[in-house]
Amino acid sequence: MASSTKSDLVLRPFEGLPGEADWVALREIVPAATATARTTADHGGRDVVVTTVLPGGWVSLHREDGTVLLAVQGVLGSDDLSRDLAAALLAAFDVEPGTGVTPDRAQVTDATPRLQDVLDLDVPFEVTVHDGYDYWLDSSSEVTDEIRASLEDAAEASIPTVRLDAVPAAYWCRMSREFLRWARTEDEDRVVDAIARLHARRESGLAGGKFLGMFRACGLVVPVWELPRGTEAADLEEPVADLAARLDEALSTDAPLDANERRARAGIVSRQVTLR
């Protein structure tokens, strides 16, 4: 495991990066996805493929074709995930093509920069969700039967997930039934208050489903809706846009919560969990 620094725990490690909510989603709730990034000119101006996971427990990979991949779900060990990931990224640049980087090779010190220092903040974080993990391989790789079987097994074990188009950082998934998980960058208390206002008015549902609760991850809150059985991601685009308008209106309200809203808020808070 990468060595830990003496710095204080950073609760929002992706704050300041384009697409902070999507970074959190890729770290916590999306099984297979890639996103775009590029290093600053001082760090070579190199394109980077940010991904959820890599094989072999790697935290980054320098593919044979020269592409560098950075896994946000890798096991890393300092109190600042942004610094951990920057160390993994820089380590990938230093190894030979065809080499994966394990956590022990991505050593973090107090001098290690953060992603916010390494990445060009003008490059948008554009997410593509995948059904499987074929993106691990470059086009020149020989795909043996063993490799193909491994990729298929990994895909079959993944939770089907789709990123919605109507709003940022909202992900439909199918587990025992269908859910929507929507990472929010606003202050946690304001999000809780806003949903409490909607809940008290019986307006917190989505597409015939119900607001289930929320969890904290990387300093953000992620509200969750349980959807009617069989709901597809495409069924949510219009309803989630309507919900977004209601939520934005509630977020802009500064009036104190009334008694019904306070009761709704207490119920929401009692069900919150923190992933890390």
Helix content: 25-40%
| N-to-C span | 17 Å
Q: What percent of residues are in strands?
A: 15-25%
Supply Rg. 20 Å
Determine the structural class based on helices, strands and strand pairing.
alpha+beta
Show unreliable segments: 1-6
Order of helices and strands: HEEEEHEHEHEEEHEEHHE
Give the rounded overall mean pLDDT: 91
Number-wise, the strands total 12
Explain the overall architecture.
This protein has 276 residues and is an alpha+beta fold. It has two domains: 139 residues, no CATH class; 112 residues, Phosphorylase Kinase, domain 1 (2-Layer Sandwich). It contains seven helices and twelve strands. A six-stranded mixed sheet has the order 5-3-4-2-1-6, covered by helices on one side. It has a six-stranded mixed sheet with strand order 7-8-9-11-10-12. It starts with 19 loop residues before the first helix and ends with a strand.
